[in-house]
Amino acid sequence: MTRLAVIVAVGLLAACSGEGENGSLQGYVDGTYVYVSAETSGRVIERPASAGAMVAADDVLFRLDTADEAEAVAGAQARLAEGRAQLANLLSGKRPEELQVIIAELDEARASQSLAEEEYLRQLQLFEKGVVSQAAVDNARASRDASLAKVEATERQLAVARLPARTEEIEAAELNVEALEATLAQTRIALERRTLRAPSEGFIEETFYEPGERVSAGQPVVSLLPAANKKIRFFLPEPLLATVQVGARISVDCDNCQPGLVALIDFIATDAEYTPPVIYTRDNREKLVFRAEAKPLDEAISLKVGQPVDVRLIGDGDAS
User: Fold this and answer.
1) Four-way CATH pick for 3-32+228-317: 3.40.50.1000, 3.20.20.30, 3.30.390.50, 2.40.30.170
2) What is the DSSP string of 139-192?
């Protein structure tokens, strides 16, 4: 039988045989441990936490290797930069170099149109003097109209080149950037989760892996006992059950403990328990006990898990 089981048995025996000396009940200090583990497997590269040490909230407990996660972050950053560049290109229209080519074509078209206009006027004057035929005038007019159409077409081409891409293309590029941003955020979270930190202030009870060892996903590396997770566990005899309420204070005493330790009852079981068979007797085998738990207050938080204590109800179980 383990030490803790012996303590429980002693507590049950005292409870089932009524109140102890000076009206006290036997109990012990218990605790709910937090087993800190990683969501993914990996090799432990650092473990600052050591058994028996106190840690503050957010202190680093251990780290796993991050090579794969760091590479994933770098890749996601590169893809996001590419996506943002593509979106910027769609929003800004043609590149400056491409615009310069179209502008040059427009200048050439305007010069040709100017020459064609002058040639048409010249042919018209010659026709009026009877030097050229009507066909020459018609040909000059056609050349002038063609050059004018070329100017107008090039001007429209330049205007279009200065416009951003179509709305559908821009929306698709924007959605792509959002997806890449989400992917980058996920990779950063995965990288951050390779470092495990203390969820609260507490006591390191035990460590299970050393640096260099590989740990599976969900396998605890450190067990942590936050001060808030300590509790005083004791058993109420059935005759006392009606006099005790959740919220009542109890006094706690132990060997060489400072006086005046108190705890607040925050749980009373609704189901009764019998005395364990190992301590059955004809006189007490029918007696029932009810498990109760109390939260240590103030200095009582320093009590150690597994430590036996004497519990006494304050004010006959009334809350204070």
Assistant:
1) 2.40.30.170
2) HHHHHHHHHHHHHHHHHHHHHHHTS---HHHHHHHHHHHHHHHHHHHHHHHHHH
CATH architecture assigned to 42-66+195-225: Beta Barrel (2.40)
**What pTM did the predictor assign?**
0.62
Q: For 121, how many CA atoms within 13 A lie in the half-sphere containing its CB?
A: 6
pLDDT, tens digit only, all 320 positions of the chain: 334 443 444 444 444 444 555 568 889 999 999 999 999 999 999 999 999 999 999 999 999 999 999 999 999 999 999 999 988 877 776 667 777 787 888 888 888 888 888 888 888 888 888 878 888 888 888 888 888 888 888 887 777 676 665 677 788 888 999 999 999 999 999 999 999 999 999 999 999 999 999 999 999 999 999 988 999 999 888 888 888 889 899 899 988 888 889 999 999 988 877 654 444 444 554 477 889 999 999 888 888 888 899 998 886 444 34
Coil vs helix vs strand at 236: strand
